[in-house]
Design brief:
By secondary structure, the protein is of the alpha/beta class. The chain has one domain. The protein is built from 10 helices and 9 strands. The chain has a 5-stranded mixed β-sheet with strand order 1-9-8-2-5, with helices on both faces. Strands 3-4 form a two-stranded parallel ribbon. A two-stranded antiparallel sheet has the order 6-7. The protein starts with a helix and ends in a 7-residue tail after the last helix. This is Lipid A biosynthesis lauroyl acyltransferase. GO terms for molecular function: acyltransferase activity.
């Protein structure tokens, strides 16, 4: 934590904003666990990108796979809600071993890292799409593909709506989910790649399809219900979520900033 003081400040602020009812001492314990998880996540990225399928299969179990089977039985595309857990890379690799799909990502500014990231993610998936390529996502969803999509970060005011996220009543939330659901009408399946509490591997938790809650609804309703689904997923392993990004950096006109000058000075790829 000492090596990342600004990130600690951001994470602490996010926990304060999202869990106002949680005592400060409990939030601080959660913060410490979260940064322990950050360190583990770096190692797990290496596992995701470089371990063989045979070796990796010994380290995970799957819960709720019947939800995926039900979605596939309807011959629909699947919008797989990939939440920004610190186990994100490992979760995508494991899921792809079961059902290869299409990843959505932001190309990295560092060419070498971008090459490594793409190579690692294609170990068990078909291809990658730029996160702004909504037309491409709609096309492959209509073709019955699985698309990994993460709607839980702040992507700016453009094409976003302000709806509740945990205890923050007006979090900027991408309207991309609304456009994908309206145009392709896929199954919408959240999943959680959770590190086991006993340290003995990982559990991939596939949650029920929420598509029926989103069809024919407006932007704000879709974004609100998507955020609620993300909250439920995060609650399964809050210490393993990526709290160190400025989730609430974009504010409605006239509303005060939620971060101080030090946090707002940070510029990083993907934040």
């Amino acid at each position: 934590m000492r090596a990342l003081p600004r990130r600690v400040t951001i994470a602490r602020r996010n926990l304060e904003l999202c869990f106002k009812a949680l005592p400060a001492k409990e939030r601080e314990k959660l913060l410490i666990k979260n940064f322990e998880s950050v360190g583990m996540g770096v190692l797990e990225t290496g596992i995701a990108w470089f371990w063989s399928d045979r070796r990796l299969r010994k380290w995970f179990t799957v819960t709720g796979y019947e939800h995926m089977e039900s979605a596939r039985a309807e011959n629909k595309g699947v919008l797989l809600i990939g939440i920004h857990f610190l186990t994100l890379e490992l979760g995508a690799r494991i899921f792809g071993m079961l059902n290869p799909g299409i990843g959505v990502y932001r190309p990295n500014n560092n060419a070498l890292y971008d090459w490594l990231q793409t190579r690692g993610r294609l170990r068990s998936n078909k291809t990658m799409l730029d996160r702004y390529d909504l037309k491409g996502m709609i096309r492959v969803l209509k073709q019955g593909e699985i698309v990994w999509y993460a709607p839980d970060h702040d992507y700016g005011a453009r094409n976003s709506v302000f709806v509740p996220f945990f205890d923050v009543p007006d979090a900027a939330t991408t309207a991309g989910s609304y456009m994908l659901v309206r145009s392709a009408r896929p199954a919408v399946v959240p999943f959680v790649p959770r590190r086991r509490a006993d340290g003995r591997g990982y559990e991939l938790i596939i949650l029920p399809d929420i598509g029926h809650e989103l069809y024919d609804e407006g932007k704000e309703t879709v974004a609100t219900r998507m955020n609620r689904a993300i909250e439920r997923a995060i609650s399964l392993a809050p210490e393993q979520y990526m709290w160190l990004h400025r989730r609430f950096k974009t504010r409605p006109a006239g509303k005060p900033a939620l971060y101080g000058k030090k946090e707002n000075a940070i510029e990083s790829n993907g934040e």
